[in-house]
Design goal:
About 45% of the residues lie in helices and about 15% in strands. The protein is an alpha/beta fold and about 260 residues long. The chain has a single domain, classed as Rossmann fold, CATH 3.40.50. The chain has a 5-stranded parallel sheet with strand order 3-2-1-6-7. Helix 2 packs across helix 3, helix 4 runs antiparallel to helix 5 and helix 6 crosses helix 8. The radius of gyration is 19 Å and the shape is globular.
Length: about 260
């Protein structure tokens, strides 16, 4: 999974015969517009309980938004503990499906996911949002895998609200993807590596995009964002459409410096 563009600029020529291509997409702000965590919590618990929890945790949530990193992990876990702790996992799963259907109907972005699927690429969603509904969204979109933040289940099948493992953000996104690729026989040793496309919109996606052969910025901040060195999604889509009109199947290979 290293940058090896072909001399003629085509992905197909750059990729050895039989080599697989993987496309990893962030969820919030990448596959979909805006965030999904708060709307999901409202769908499960209602508006007023979520508002009270957000107000109670506002200092920590504000710090998390500014600092990011472990502060963001801890603040989000506290929010989940307050609002999801003690709920039956089966009931939350049922609401997750309804939420995923509604959220995709309203917020699914026009992107290159379908192009990758038509080419037979291995498409994976890698998200810091809760797996319970991101997995459902992945099923509806027909992707090959969903890697997201798992929530722990305690006695009696009740959610604790705590993470099971780590928040799927930053380095954890790439680590989870590597495990997934190995488990599916897509990651070998030496030069036996898949060609990786990675799409993200925030600093939590930076590690994944840096590891990819082709990292794409799907965010709205453009030159002001943390992913500004990567090609913009709009440019990638525009060039893809142009290539399609010319009868070509290859995506553009413009890479960050």
């Amino acid at each position: 999974m290293t940058n090896q563009p072909a001399p003629d600029g085509s992905v197909a020529a750059a990729r050895p015969a039989g080599k697989r291509t993987v496309a990893a997409f962030d969820f919030d702000g990448t596959l979909t517009s805006g965030g999904s965590v708060l709307p999901f919590l409202v769908a499960v618990r209602g508006f007023w309980p979520v508002l009270r929890a957000v107000v109670a945790l506002s200092p920590e949530l504000l710090r998390a938004a500014v600092v990011g990193g472990t502060a963001a992990d801890a603040a989000k876990e506290k929010l989940f503990t307050r609002l999801l702790g003690g709920l039956p996992v089966q009931a939350v799963d049922e609401r997750s499906l309804a939420f995923a259907e509604r959220h995709l109907a309203r917020h699914l972005r026009q992107d290159t996911r379908q192009w990758h699927q038509r080419q037979g690429h291995h498409v994976v969603i890698v998200s810091a949002s809760p797996e319970c509904y991101v997995r459902r969204a992945g099923e509806l979109l027909g992707v090959d895998g969903v890697l997201a933040t798992r929530l722990a289940v305690g006695g009696g099948g009740l959610l604790t609200g705590n993470y099971e493992g780590k928040n799927c953000r930053g380095a954890e996104k790439y680590a989870r993807l590597v495990v997934h690729l190995r488990a599916n026989g897509l990651l070998g040793g030496g030069d036996d590596q898949p060609e990786l496309w990675a799409y993200g919109n925030s600093r939590g996606d930076l590690r994944l995009l840096r590891a990819a052969d082709h990292g794409v910025d799907a965010g709205l901040l453009g030159p002001l964002g943390r992913l500004r060195k990567f090609p913009r999604l709009a440019d990638v889509v525009r060039e893809t459409e142009a290539r399609g009109q010319l009868g070509l199947t290859a995506m553009p290979t413009t890479l960050p410096e």
